[in-house]
Amino acid sequence: MLKVIIIFFLLLSNFTFTVCQDFGEISDEVLQMTSFDKDPEADAVILFDKAQLRITGQFDLEVIRHVRIKILTEAGKENANVEIYYWHEDDLDILDASSFNSEGKEVELDSDDIFVEEKGNVYKIVFAIPGAEIGSVIEYKYRRYSDYISSLEPWYFQNTSYTLLSEYSVMVPKEFTYTRLSRNLAMFNITENVESVRNPEDFNKALTQFTWTGRNLPGIKEEPYMDNLYDEYASMLFILSSYKSRTQYRVFAESWDDVAERLSRIYDDMIDQGGETEVVAETIVSSEPDDFSKAKKLYDYVRTEIKTSEHKTIFGDSFKEPNEVLQDKEGSSSDRNMLLINLLNQAGLNAKPVLISTRKNGVVVPDFCKANQFNRMICLLRIDNKSYYLYTGVKANPFGYLTPATNVGIGLLIEGDKGTIINLKPIKPANKLNIETVSTINSEGIITAKSKFTYIGCTALEERMNIEDEDIEEYVETLLDNLYAEAVLDTFYYTGLDSINNPLILNIRYTLPDYIDETEELIYFTPPLFTGIDENPFVRQKRYFPVSYNYNVRKSEKFKMIFSNKFAVNEVPLRRKASINNYSFSEIFFKGKNYVECIRTTNLKRRVIHYQYYQGLKALYDEMVSADQEQIVLSKVNHNSEVGFETNTDEK
Amino acid sequence: MIRRVVIKKILLYILFFSYFTPCFGSLQEEEGFISLIQDADAIVLQDDLSVTILNENSIEYAVHIKILIKNKRAEEYCTVVINESEYQVIQNIDAMIIDTLGNVIKQLDSDEIEEAEMSPGYVLYSGKKYSWFSLTNHTYPYVIDYTYTMELESLFFWPDWYPQSDIPCLSSTYKLQIPNGIEFEYFNVGIDIEPDKVIGNSKIIYSWQLINIPPRSVEDFMPPENKKQMAIHFKPKKFEISNYNGSYESWSSLADWYRALTDGKYKLSKSAQDEFQKLVDGIEDPKEKVEILYKYLQQKNRYVAIELGIGGWQPQSATDVYENRYGDCKDLTTIMVSMLDAVGIKSYPALALTRDKGEVMDDFPSNQFNHCIAFVPLEKDTIWLECTSSYIDMEDTPYNIEDIFVLVVKDDDGELIKTPKKNSANNHWISSLKGVLGKQGDLTFSVSVNTSGNQKNYIKSKLAVNSKQDDLIFLQNYLGRNYSNLNINDFTIEVPEDNTLEYNLELNGVYNKFNPKRGSRIFINPNILNRLTGKSLPAEDIEERKYPVFYKYPYLDIDTVIIEISKGYILESKPKDVSVSNSFGQFSAEYKFNNNKLYYLRKMEIKDNIIAVELYPEYIEFLKMVIKSDKSKFVFKRK
After folding, report:
1. Average pLDDT, stretch A418-431?
2. Paired sense of beta strands B184-189 and B169-179, if any
3. Is A583 exposed, middle or buried (0-12, 13-18, 19+ CB in 10 A)?
4. B358-373 pLDDT per residue, tens
């Protein structure tokens, strides 16, 4: 839950210095510690991680970060390889870095062993703390100066390792106002302390120091079905709003309107850019009868005629102008969407840019008015009071839909100088995958099958994206290989590949040699199901954050085997069924004189499952894994007739 | 104009397959090659490498490549990455896109060339840089045409010729201009041509050319050395790098160079020497001393590679490693040699090419190495120490340095020696699982696993470095790979007192819903832990296979399973016993059922890690038989 607290600084009477942790002052108890009782399985424990931020009299930012870590296993030694990223215009000094063994012997980092790597505007300092071994305590401290005080980085109280103490402290002249935003703090007791301290630059002046302290914070590591690791950490944003003295008034924090005003200076020219775009727009829509069909035509033009290139930015030098995109016939997804916005406007339609943050990039904090939270641009089109959200970054994405990666709930609408956080309401697809297989078995026990896949909504989008740049035959062979490694592909064809508004259909014909098991009297096999699973992805006992799938989806698969009178159904598995909140599974078998049938269904109604259902979800997968190993049993009947493939059985 | 004509001709050739006549250096019958270029997403039209040896210490070379891009899948060839270092500097880069008519439609702008520093994943910092660009077009086909020139500071970096890539190539040339008096040698791999030679007053020009070069063959499980199918390697007789003179005349002369690089690096302080001596005080057996010091090295140090300039080849001093407690392979080997020296045991560094990168060309002395290990020749034993690992036992060298030629740098000599290899029995996995199938179909079990050699190294690499929680997750995934509903209650690890080369894992847990008794029958595949599936089969048909099958190491697996079944069931059928033995492997599976207990015994052995291509048909049959057996099930029927 996000909380916004706006506090005006109070004049406090007691002037004190913050008591900082002395470098290398480590108790014998910590030095000699061999395991950590609060997290006995830890590779390392972050004993403390402290940052102290100070706004100088010149409105610069000074950050002092001090980290101490206890190494408990071989893998924990990795913590001694330190990488610190920073903006190329900032100055960063390593003040101290040392290891201390269990007897307290210190090995200091030599300044010659500190290296800087440059990549674009981001620099990285790397160093290996010397002397680190199992049982060592490693410690480092650095100072960073920056001219940019309005963009303080978020503070993450958590890390991949257990953190005993995380402390974030900000010292600012009392004339400042600020905003604090927090995320995922509800389950932790984060304390806040406010005090007045002397300004080290001018002892006659006071600074107000805010300190937030979190203790005993469990580590979180990457796990399956996670959108963004950092979204799950307990974190805080501290935003300086303004400065007001008798002689000076400065505003640091931006509103969304400020952001929009700045961006619109770039975007407005792009939206209005004429020339080639004007000609193209006019040519494309000239014979279209209404705004909606004009919009669809222009959308299809950008979607199909402009190639997607690597995404770089949503503003700045690398953001391509519409005419440039048109000339190159190539641009990133955001470049393409800006071209679409331009073309729509050239055609007299009302289209605006909306900035979003993809799922991998992390959730946007609506009250933190910074453009760098966003990493993609989409288009909002309004026709007759109806809104359409358009994204041309994926060729297979239909008009009015957003892809799973870009369907993120909120975005920043830029309308001239006005910036507004809006809820995105794209068309909601009904996501389905239906598979129907009809098979026969010959006297050698070889199964011959025909499967028809019908992809609808996001499954169709995903499938079209999968095969867009692939060798399709290789792709289908892999699909079959995942069903059964020895399967032999006979023929296949797709229908609806280019009709992105319609379901995508794949028909494949194949054989499964050596698939069945047999005894003298019986044959038995697990139904070969494409949606079957043999692995439960949820191995950990506990989970502290939600399980995030790509999209909600209903999958239904029917497998039918028809056989001659050489076989008879002996036994089919009983019905299996399990469900938790918003996710269900069933597997049902039917039998007849010359056939046996299995229908497997999963229905994920919401893409995100709350972590309180984790144990239930784990058990649901256990049930699926177990059910997908069930056996169909046929008896061999003593006849001499040959069993052949029956045609047209998949037409019903 | 000339370019336009050439491109047009090449494209005509590709379209009509009849431009060139196969001549000297042609590698593929025209008919076969035409089929290759028809099917390829991209074709190298021209690949010219022009190397000019300026003097004893510097080289300039120019690369000129033209690639026909037929579709989007081929655009990976439009991204060009050029590495730079202290010794290798880019002089210029130029690139353009040309259409099918030979018109230049795009030119690379210098702003489009990006630069960044680069340290490969295993290196913390190297100071190396790379420049890269990507130039594509929206309509296909088109030709990307690029050139770049480099200046190299030492003949040590003399570029080799690799005319073959993963797409067909119409023409590849290597042109070498070398002043008189600079001696060099070359070594052909898979190329059987001699160069044209033009002798001038002050220099000689050599030219090699190949046309119609098929793409590299890629096969499943192929030996690493076979992945490089065509190359010419070059070396100067003498070279100098960062004021260190070297010679490639013999392995011994190369060892001289490494010895010079390490001069003074083995010194340790008196206190450090005393510390090491104290560790082995009272111990007579030199092998035991080596083991103690090796364990100390592993416990106290970690692998961190910082390779600046000559630091890519020259180790840090033992004193620095002792103080810092980190280093790369050559640093850690250096301190290991110093530690042993401190207790009176002579040992040497040995330069190695890890097995995953191929094999050393033993009759072409040159710097072919990417690794360094320690060689300890004792009176009764010879010990090889992999100094970068924190968990490998002294005598259990990992497969990557087994059965390879290494250059042992002795005090006044250098010798190419082959490292030993463990046989299958010494890379064993022996498991014994006992379980009870409960009323709800859960299988409650305990299992003991005994491993040795490289199978032990694999398990240890996962269990010896992480926390118990991560170990548990590894074991759940590893032992649950055939049936993933596994809950491990507890596990322990122990090293048998009588054989420290082995590693025991004891574990108990439950396979949930293993076999719910819901119908009249239950089906049990007793092969729970060690199953081969169709994914283990190489993709190549028997008649297609060109290269041997490569295993990382020979191995022996023995798995025993005993499962108690409810008395309410009787055996309806059990799989047939299987037993096969041949020159490269053996397999047997036995199935029994007595007193409501099923018994399963599986033995699988791969005798050597290379299976000759002539044995491929037999090998495939063997694998298919194993796969079939591994999925066989007991069938029980309710009474």
Report:
1. 96
2. unpaired
3. buried
4. 999 999 999 999 999 9
Contact state of B632 with A484 under an 8 Å Cβ cutoff: no
CA distance B88 to B83: 8
CB environment B174-194: b (16+ within 10 A), e (fewer): bbbbbeeebebebeebebeee
Torsion angle of the four alpha carbons B600, B606, B612, B615, in this order, in degrees rounded to the nearest 10:
-20
Rounded Cα gap, residues A546 and A229, in angstroms:
11
| Angle between helices B329-342 and B286-300 in degrees, nearest 10 | 140
Phi/psi of residue A243, nearest 5 degrees: -130, 130
Residue B132 DSSP SS3:
strand
Q: Which of B:224-283 have CB within 8 Å of A?
A: none
Q: Which residue has the higher pLDDT, A496 or A246?
A: A496
Query: Quick one: tokens of A571?
Result: 């036994």
State phi, psi for B193 to the nearest 5 degrees: -130, 155
Q: Is B639 on the interface with A (CB under 8 A)?
A: no
How many residues would you count in chain A? 652
A119 contacts B519? CB cut-off 8 A: no
- State the CB neighbour count (10 A cutoff) for residue B388: 24
Determine which helix (DSSP H) or strand (DSSP E) holds A28, and give its type and residue range: helix A28-31
Tokens, residue A193: 């302390």
Cis peptide before B141 (omega within 30 of 0): yes
The whole-angstrom separation of Cα A589 and Cα A439 is 15
Q: Could you say which of B134, B465, B521 has the minimum Cβ distance to residue A74?
A: B465
Q: How far apart are CA A408 and CA A221, in angstroms?
A: 23
Nearest residue to B124 via CA among B253, B263, B276, B316 = B316
Q: What is the SS3 assignment for A559-581?
A: EEEECCCCEEEEECCCCEEEEEC
Q: How far, in Å, CA of A353 to CA of A319, rounded?
A: 14
A133 and B299: CB-CB below 8 Å?
yes
Contact B513 A626 (CB under 8 A): yes
Name the pTM for this structure. Answer: 0.89
**Parallel, antiparallel or unpaired: strands B302-303 and A61-71:** unpaired
Q: Residue A404: how many CB atoms within 10 A of its CB? A: 18
Please answer whether residues A592 and A572 qualify as being in contact, where contact means their C-beta atoms are separated by less than 8 angstroms. Answer: no
A206, A22 contact by CB (below 8 A)? no
Burial track A190-201 (b if 16+ CB lie within 10 A, e otherwise): beeeebbbebee
SS3 B544: coil
Residues contacting residue B316 through CB under 8 Å, at least 6 positions apart = B265, B324, B327, B331, B334
Q: How many CB pairs under 8 A join A and B?
A: 153
Sign of the dihedral defined by the CA atoms of residues A337, A339, A345, A348, in that order: negative
**Cβ-Cβ contacts under 8 Å for A641 (sequence gap 6 or more):** A564, A565, A566
Pairing of strands A176-183, A115-119: unpaired
Instruction: With cut-offs at 50, 70 and 90, classify the pLDDT of residue A646.
Output: very low
pLDDT exceeds cutoff 80 at B8: no
B485 shares contact with chain A (CB less than 8 Å): yes
Name B446's bridge partners: B434, B508
What is the distance between the alpha carbons of residues B21 and B44, in angstroms, rounded to a whole number?
18
* Contact (CB, 8 A) for B509 and B489: yes
Q: How far apart are CA B455 and CA B551, in angstroms?
A: 13
Give the mean pLDDT of B11-28.
Answer: 46
Residue A322 tokens, joined: 């519409």
Shortest CA distance to B550 belongs to which of B223, B225, B118, B241? B223
Residue A434's CB is within 10 A of a number of other CB atoms, namely 18
Question: How far A634 CA sits from the closest chain B CA (Å)?
Answer: 12
